[in-house]
What we know:
The structure holds two protein chains of two kinds. By secondary structure, chain A is an alpha/beta fold. Chain A has two domains: 12-230, 3-Layer(aba) Sandwich (Rossmann fold), CATH 3.40.50; 232-305, Alpha-Beta Plaits (2-Layer Sandwich), CATH 3.30.70. Chain A has helices at residues 50-57, 80-84, 101-111, 116-129, 145-157, 175-190, 225-233, 247-254, 279-292, 309-330, and strands spanning 12-21, 24-34, 39-43, 65-70, 86-89, 163-167, 194-199, 210-215, 218-223, 236-241, 265-266, 271-276, 301-305. Chain A has a six-stranded mixed sheet, sandwiched between helices. A four-stranded antiparallel sheet of chain A has the order 11-12-10-13. A three-stranded antiparallel sheet of chain A has the order 2-1-4, covered by helices on one side. In chain A, β8 and β9 (218-223) form a beta hairpin. By secondary structure, chain B is of the alpha/beta class. Chain B has three domains: 7-46 and 333-563, no CATH class; 54-147, Alpha-D-Glucose-1,6-Bisphosphate, Chain A, domain 3 (3-Layer(aba) Sandwich), CATH 3.40.120; 182-318, Up-down Bundle (A middle domain of Talin 1). Chain B has helices at 2-23, 26-46, 64-76, 90-97, 104-118, 130-135, 151-207, 210-244, 254-279, 285-311, 314-318, 335-366, 368-374, 379-408, 434-461, 465-482, 494-501, 504-518, 538-563; strands at 54-60, 81-88, 122-125, 143-145, 423-425, 431-433, 526-528, 531-533. In chain B, the strands form three sheets. In chain B, strands 2-1-3-4 form a four-stranded mixed sheet, with helices on both faces. A two-stranded antiparallel ribbon of chain B has the order 5-6. The longest helix of chain B is centred in the N-terminal third of the chain and has 57 residues, at 151-207. The chains are: A alpha/beta, B alpha/beta. The interface between A and B is medium-sized, with 28 and 27 residues.
Amino acid sequence: MLSQVQRPAPMINMQGAVKEFGSTTVIDNISLQVPRGSIYCFIGPSGSGKTTVIRMLNGVYAPTSGSVEVMGKAPTRWTTTDREQVGYMPQLFVLYPNLSVEENVDFAASAYGMGWWARRGPKRQLLEFVGLWEHRHKLARSISGGMQRRLELACALIHDPVLIFLDEPTAGIDPILRATVWEHLRHLRDQGKTIFVTTQYVTEAEYCDRVGLINKGRLIADGTPDQVRKMAFGGEIVRLTCDRLTSDLLQHIEDLPQIADDKSRRISRTTAELIVDEASTAMPLILGVMNSYGIPLEQITIEEIKPPYDDVFVRLIQDEEKLARTMERLA
Amino acid sequence: MRSLLKSIIRLSAFVSKESREVLRQPWLVVSLILGPFAILALFGLGYRGDPAVLNTVVVAPNDPRLQNEVEQYAKTLGKQLRLVDLIPDAALAAEISSRDEASLGSRVSKVEDLLRQYGADLVASFPPDAAQRIQRGEAAPLVLYYDTVDPVRDQYIASFGLIYTYEVNRRVLTSAAQQTQGRTTALSQDVSQMRQQIGGVRSAVQAGDRQRASQEASQLSQTTDRVATAVETSAGLLGGVQSSVGGGGQGQSPQSQQAVGAARELRQQVGTLRSDLDQGPSLDQTRRLDDLARIERGLDQLDTAITEFNQIPPQVLAAPFTNVTQNVAPLRPNFVTFYAPGVLALLLQHLAISIAALSLVRERLLGALEVFRVGPLSAFEALAGKYLSFIVLSLVVGVVLLALLAFGLGVPLQGGVQPTGLSLLLPNGQWVGVAHLLYLALALLLLISASLGVGFVISAVSTSDSQAVQLSMIVLLASIFFSGFFLPLDTLYGPARVIAALLPVTYGIQALQAAMLRGEHLLGTGVIAGVAIPLNQLALVALLLMTLALFVASLLLFQRQLKGT
Lengths: 331, 565
């Protein structure tokens, strides 16, 4: 994990946060930080506690214990001015179906204190940005689900917030539209906004600056997408293909200090996958060992493999559950 | 200053949103206005307003004279009684006129058969032993049988029974008075005979025949005694009536006293004449002729009194008072006009409660409260914005309905009272005072505001659309029964009046009726606890207090909901 030293104060700082409803612990000791001007993606299966965390971060829920600081103070103590800096798009559809696209945006803007004149320019810009300007006179109930999600996004952004909470903005929309939404989010990040977004689509972690994986109320991974992937597999993955990949040669390679012990696996007679600390450091050393066996470079294929995030997620969840079962047995 | 401006903009967000959402449903707006107007118009066209007609079967003894009387009663009682049939059956009449508890089941069974057989509403029995009962000093019962579970109809028939019995009694008394007057008609013949006898005495006195004069005077004396006795009896009837109504002194009226006095004086004069003729020292023709002239003048007076008595109709003697009512209200409204303010108040309350009750629930179900909670919007701004937009919407509906009532159904806006001060000429040619229109507008505004408060409180405690609608309907039902809409408030017991006091429509109806039926206006003054205040309408004050209390209550509930999302 990268050092936080000498960095500006994070936009979001959650330390040991716990949320209980009655005797049920919904969020269990979560700590995370979100730097300013980044996209933090919160991934977890349905019912894992993503929405509860968002509600703790935007002040709807106060933590039962632990601390939550957003924009330097507890969200439950936000002033009206603080709230004007925040955009929120909840998981459920909260548009007014009998109002037009434009009227919904107008309502959201007015609710944040923007008068007709102040919202005139940003409204057009934003509706064009989400591709709804031509549909602005249509009723919200008459447009497609994807357009409704984009309209909600527009409503959450109309007042130009510095911090944006998006609860599953891509749920229920097709992959092409999802890519468009993520493009919009990266564009906003580039403008300096901080975005905290939840999703069930684990592959979307690739689009973010940082990723948090949550399962059953516990944060099981937190870091950049690569860090989290590495965490799942114990290191980076290097795939080695060679006709003369003997057991002796493979053993020799596995003996290198950069190769993780007992984690390599042979895929076929000619191919093996090796778990390494750093692919860029380990690959020249592997090639050196093969060279010492007299294998010319042109007979070797070596590449870093980035497994899909689905696999990363499954691996992390399985590890977490295995650990939990072990702990239970020990207890 | 900037934050105040932003607060106003946030508040206006709801005004704009709610108005647009309603206007997006034009048929809803049309049905809100035209629906109730159409119902009131149909009510006006379809409601007869006449008392119910009771199809009646009368069971009476087989006496043609009595049957004739019964038919006459039926005609006299007016349209409410329609004589279906008259059953001449003394035994049946005796049985169903009985008050014997033991035979009640059998009587009811027979009466039910009659009601079914004739499709009648009422069976009236005329007891065959009425005369004997009266002779025994016992009132004869006129029994009415009917079969209804409707308490209003029950009371109506009971009142009708009283009128029916009164009418029978009146006719009996009229007949008795008629017979008494018949006897006084016979008196006129006696008076003629007396004139002849006076002539005979005069002729004998002029001829100097004292013996014949004495004989004639003796006959005159007998006739005079008979006339005097009859006059005293007849005068007793008139005197009884007149003394009961305060027209006379101790038991007799001036007219009857005059008649009785004239008869007594006549009797005394004739007695003196007879005594002088029988026992006087001489005939003394001159004095006797003077006596006879005086007796003739007395007879004239008596004759006049008898004629006057005979000229009084027997119906007047039997029922000396007639019913004259004078309503001093500024307006005599028909049913549509009378119910129009109530319907308007009830409709506006229901409209305001329904839209407010659904409003917050829908925001909550939509998930908007969570967004409001995160954003800078306060509960006050959201609620005030909704209040404003719904007040404007309901006021528009109220004003349009008021105009439709005034120009479409002819319902007055100023209750027949002449406008004072600055006035406006309406398109229908009526002048209406500005102070009066302001009063109407204030009444509508306060009724709507208080009703919105009820709706928002309902909305805050409801967990779903259907629950909000159910609670609104319960308030509507309570309003129909407890607001004085069709049952006067003073017919309710104390605890029930508490419910009435908690309903905005109770005060709304009072205020709108005061304005539309009695011409109440804003500058009217009244006195409360010895202090003159500019408004004499406590209803408006009550609505204002209710508005403030309900706004605070709904604000607190809404704030709690926002915090507890």
